[in-house]
Amino acid sequence: MKKNILIVISAAVLFSMVSCSHKKETAASLVPEDYSGWTITADNLNYPIPGHENHFRRVLINPKGQEVSVIKKEGKDYYAYPKGTIVIKEIYPTLNPKEGTKPVSLTVMIKDPENPQSRDGWIWVVKDLKKNTEKIIDYEFCYDCHTNANEPHQYGDGNPDGEFRDYLFFPYRKTASGNRQQSSDNRSY
Q1: Which end of the chain is more exposed for a tag (fewer CB within 10 A), N or C?
Q2: Does 162 fall in a domain?
Q3: What is the pLDDT of residue 71?
């Protein structure tokens, strides 16, 4: 009897250790399967950057993210994305993929301020499309890099006015007609 109890306790401890060691893997999918109808905010990111290296990237935002509020603070735009905003950055295998090439992974930002794993309201997720696995990034790399989006920087349009973009290098913007703006270098915003 004591031997059986010891075996059960040992198995429970081992199960706890194994399940805790995979804490970053998400049990339920955080990343929607079909995002093809979402709005593209940047679609010609074919230059290397830290964290994404030599990979072409395309950025999309869900309809909830298009409800972003933009207010003026001290003469600068201040973006505040609502809870439920999802931004998906498709990562392709090369800087110049051939037409029809599929992304190999997704890096995803999910606005969920109440989630204990969020940083300044965002959860950062990487989805490996070959393995169909998702991991919440629980170290600072993504957050630290995207903090730069809130001040002048060297990527995209460079944010020359130092807008607070709520951690997005390519914020969703509407014109008076409701259409997405494009910059003179043909990058979408």
Answers
A1: N
A2: no
A3: 93
